[in-house]
Design goal:
single chain, about 80 residues, mainly alpha, about 85% helix, about 0% strand, rod-shaped
Length: about 80
């Protein structure tokens, strides 16, 4: 069995520290990319909301026009 020495422990701790630094860097990258994806999704949602508003206005106009067409004044011949 290998004898555990201070030098061995120090090397292991340096390796763990290095790995932990890489994990932190990767996590920061993931957070940055996630933020970008959330911002892009928010932009898509805003566009969908605008299209929904426009569609609602068009539907209201069509309903008003349909009502106006069905309620023409009576004109005897």
């Amino acid at each position: 069995m290998t004898k555990v020495t201070n030098d061995l422990m120090y090397e292991l701790l340096k390796r763990i520290h290095s790995d932990l630094s890489e994990v932190r860097f990767d996590l920061q990258e993931i957070k940055r990319r996630m933020t970008g994806a959330e911002e892009a999704l928010a932009g898509v949602n805003r566009r969908l909301d605008r299209h929904e508003d426009r569609l609602d206005r068009i539907e209201r106009r069509l309903e008003l026009r349909e009502l106006a067409e069905t309620q023409r004044p009576y004109e005897p011949k």
